[in-house]
Specification:
- The structure is a homodimer of 224-residue chains.
- Chain A contains 8 helices and 8 strands, in the order H-H-H-E-E-H-H-H-E-E-H-E-E-E-H-E.
- Chain A is of the alpha+beta class.
- Chain A has 2 domains: 146 residues, Winged helix-like DNA-binding domain superfamily/Winged helix DNA-binding domain (Arc Repressor Mutant, subunit A); 74 residues, Roll (SH3 type barrels), CATH 2.30.30.90.
- In chain A, the strands form 2 sheets. In chain A, strands 3-8-4-5-6-7 form a 6-stranded antiparallel beta sheet. A two-stranded antiparallel sheet of chain A has the order 1-2.
- At the A-B interface, helix 5 and helix 6 of A face helix 5 and helix 6 of B.
- The structure holds manganese (II) ion (MN) (4 copies).
- One manganese (II) ion binds next to loops of chain B.
- The site of one manganese (II) ion has 4 residues of chain B, from loops.
- The structure holds a DNA duplex (30 and 30 nucleotides).
Amino acid sequence: MAYLQPLSFTEENYLKAIYSLSERAESFDTSTNEIALKTNTKPPTVSDMLRKLADKKLVTYEKYKRVQLTKSGRQVAIQVIRKHRLWEVFLHDKLEFTWDKVHEVAEQLEHIRSEELISRLEKFLGYPTNDPHGDPIPSANGELTQAKRIILSDVGEGKVCYVVGVKDSTSPFLQYLQQLNIGIGTKIKLIERIAYDGSLTISMRKGQQISVSKKFADNVLVTV
Amino acid sequence: MAYLQPLSFTEENYLKAIYSLSERAESFDTSTNEIALKTNTKPPTVSDMLRKLADKKLVTYEKYKRVQLTKSGRQVAIQVIRKHRLWEVFLHDKLEFTWDKVHEVAEQLEHIRSEELISRLEKFLGYPTNDPHGDPIPSANGELTQAKRIILSDVGEGKVCYVVGVKDSTSPFLQYLQQLNIGIGTKIKLIERIAYDGSLTISMRKGQQISVSKKFADNVLVTV
DNA sequence: AACAAAAGTTAGATTAACCTAACATTTATT
DNA sequence: AATAAATGTTAGGTTAATCTAACTTTTGTT
Ligand SMILES: [Mn+2]
Ligand SMILES: [Mn+2]
Ligand SMILES: [Mn+2]
Ligand SMILES: [Mn+2]
């Protein structure tokens, strides 16, 4: 394995962007324009960068074709994501940032270079498995178990989950969510499933229990 | 007061270097070569940077003359120092980094841009007044109260003092300190000064007496 | 004061990261 | 298949931060 000289913030950001774009494609690849969109740059800038990353064996790329991360490029991306998410946990759990503000700061912190810093931070945080948005935190050796999203209705009794999205985007539904004080990242514990109508008793935060209908729970996406 | 667009890491590092170099001069100024030394760059690089910083009204500078921070430049430098020292406290107190390793990481963390991050961090740390090296932490509005410190060599016989900092920050010195189990806050009683070579007999904690050289005692900062 | 040494600047390059305008290739649609 | 649209690359330029080599100014020393 070739020795990798430290990458710049910029290179790390591109790898992270390529990772998240290619993860959501069947073929695990992405395109120049998509990357430009995601990184707020212009396509020519991306072309240059792709050539550079290809030279460093971080992506496989031929001009006019779609790009893929190499194994080594993917490992780098995952390490950056690991750092990003650990910092998000720190900001949220320790510094009490609200979940919608952690991202911007973590975007900077993720580039701090120190192995020791990250392993100590992880220990300090109690080896968390998910960030405040419910996304999984990769392990030090780069393993990432892609949490599969399920609907709240399918969570087991007694299990804890995190809200990661919704299936219904209509106003009444979103307003109801807001009324219940449920948003992305909300940690929910499923207390009981009522067999009669599929409604659920759940608890959030400081344990206030509420009851929600099956119809509602069918439209909330969570990860366990 | 002119609105200041965010400075680059590099610019912040130069301002910090200029601050610390000029603080220790009678005339509160410093020179191109000194800055180059401190920042591990070459004099021409510094010349360029000084012109740029002068344009931004962060330093007063005329070519071939010595340079001084403006009020605004000093404020920026102090804020960077504030961030640096708060992060050092975090690394030392929360992540249990040893004394001699906090600096390198703080050197990176000090450039993270977020007012909110720093104020929350400060609160989380319990509003510390000194960093792990004993140096004072500037307040949010840029005040920095420097306690009078003397070197251990100048403490009178029979007097008691407290370690508040060091003059030498190199690894061998810091390691020797650790070996002697001397750190910030350590209470030291000066038992005897040997006229012959200026070496000192001191006692700490449970009264174990040890002898230290003048060279060593010249680099330990204390308050009586 | 004269000259040598030290300190500091300018000139001219380089590299990374970006851009716009022009060109090339691939793909989609008559 | 021909053409239009979309996508992607090259050419050529900019800015920040750095360097070496050559030059200039200031300072120190006979
Ligand atoms: Mn980032
Ligand atoms: Mn996240
Ligand atoms: Mn720094
Ligand atoms: Mn310090």
